[in-house]
Amino acid sequence: MRRFLRLSPLLLAAMLISIWEVGVRVAAVPTFILPTPSAILVRFAAAWADGTMVRHLVPTVIEVTIGGFIGGGAGLALGIVLGLSGAARRVVSPYLVAAQSTPILALGPVLVLWFGPGLAAKIAVCALITLFPVAIATLVAIRDVEPGTIELMSSLGASRWQSLRYARLPGARAGIFAGARVAATLAVVGAIVGEWLGGSAGLGILLNLARGSLFDTPLLFADLLQIAILGMSAYALVLWMERVTSRSTA
Amino acid sequence: MAHLQIQGLSHSFGERLILRNLSLSIASGESVALLGPNGSGKSTLLRLIAGLLTPTEGSIIIGGSGAAAGRPDVGIAFQDPRLLPWRTVLRNVTLPLEIAGEDERGAREAAAAALRRVAADLLHDRRPAEISGGERGRVALARALVRAPSLLLLDEPFAALDAITRARLDDELPELTAGAATLLVTHDVAEALLVADRVLLLDPVGSISVEVPGLRSLPPAHRRSALLSADGAARQSRLYEALAAVDHA
Questions:
Q1: DSSP H or E stretch at residue A151
Q2: Interface contacts A/B by beta carbons within 8 Å
Q3: What residues contact residue A123 under an 8 Å CB cut-off, 6+ apart?
Q4: How far, in Å, are A232, B143, B181, B243 from residue B68 at the CA level?
């Protein structure tokens, strides 16, 4: 039974894909509307073989990685400062909430105006979109560490920095990584949308190309598959970082 | 010469007076139990001595100098063990030494010795969630003892434990804390008599009203029976009567 439950997501996927494959063939849906999964896989492999996918994947990976680490790092730092200082929290929190309720993606055109149509604007979108979930998760987790634990640290003569290092940060780890997991998938969204604002290569650009001038619907779906794989990889990277830091705090 | 000397201590939180003109002294190596109903300011007194609060009035002198948070010669165990759940037992006990900047090897050796002293040396690599409540109480005590404090402050450290575990720790406590001046706060009359040389009663207005000698100086095997002897029963009933009197005051 447990083995069945572990395999059940795969079984469900296999079932849905089979229905999709058979349905499209039986109903004779035109490929330019909805290609079969097998056609998408064939196109996916071909795009990898002829170098199309790599050419568009690399810039997106760079944007997600650099933007994600800058945004995540800045969010962590901001969250720690706001979590520790009630005064800073009272001054900055309203702006943090206001900034989070502004759709970051709508700022895209402004960022292109400032940073130009190159890599920088896309990194900026990724960084901004990852900053807020990490900052807010960190703020809450740092602020809400047990008061008893903080009193223990004072009784041991810990400085503010030691209290942060030995008690608040390790205690807040799970909360911070919950924010980082959300941010990881958002970073990919940020990169794709950033690319729609202009540029020559990237998975977001490829989406537009496949839908527009190339009119290659299987390629469009192959690109979506690649984006999904990238999102899951970013998520997996965060999970791995969580595991590694859990070992080092033991 | 008293190791802990408190004079004219008063403390209030806003309008509410918690302690009033309290004076108390504890000699080196002496163990004193402070008994009092809930809300009589017992825990506040310990926090003042530990330097976690600043008194409204009065003075607290420990070994010749004023109270301050984080003094290495003062150890404190709180009502709950407050172990860091992500650290192993050993690393919970090394924590005070890490904060004091001691090297890792020395810290580990001292922590292992403290755990041996409280009979918890088989637990080194376990996490707090993997050990029993009584074991957590022992580990918290080892953490309080690891810097070899000359003054030990215990805030009902076994209050959350079951009766059997608690009785066992009460039996062992005088030997575990030997050498340090100890101030134990409790609302358990038998516990106070078993572990202390002197039992003091803190009344609701936060001053000390009654003093009864404890049974700590007896050999460990005789303390429980002494508690039930005519003399022990008389001491218990004196404390119960005094507690009832302050409760109705």
A1: helix A147-155
A2: 51
A3: A63, A66, A67, A70
A4: 52, 19, 17, 32
Give the closest residue to A169 by CA, choosing from A131, A142, A139: A142
Q: What is the pLDDT of residues A165-178, one digit of tens each?
A: 999 999 999 999 99
Collect all residues of chain B within an 8 Å Cβ-Cβ radius of residue A249: 86-87
pLDDT digits (tens, 9 = 90+) for B162-183: 888 888 888 889 988 888 999 9
Hey, are the CB atoms on A162 and B50 less than 8 Å from each other? no
Q: Is residue B144 domain-shared with residue B192, that is, in the same domain?
A: no
pTM of the predicted protein model:
0.84
- Predicted local distance difference test score (pLDDT) of residue B176: 86
Q: Which domain holds residue B97?
A: 85-148
Task: Indicate the number of domains in chain B.
Answer: 2
CB-based contact B202:B243 (threshold 8 Å)? no
B98: contact with A, CB 8 A cutoff: yes
Q: Is residue B221 over pLDDT 70?
A: yes
State whether B153 and B143 are in the same domain: no
- Residues B176, B133 share a domain: no
Q: Does A162 touch chain B (CB under 8 A)?
A: yes
**Considering only CA atoms, which of A88, A70, A67, A66 is closest in space to residue A79?**
A88
Are A155 and B91 in contact (CB < 8 Å)? no
The CATH code of the domain that includes A132 is 1.10.3720.10
Task: For chain A, say whether B172 makes contact (Cβ under 8 Å).
Answer: no
**Cβ pair A149:B80 closer than 8 A:** no
The arithmetic mean of pLDDT across residues B183-204, rounded, is 91
Higher pLDDT, A219 or A107: A219
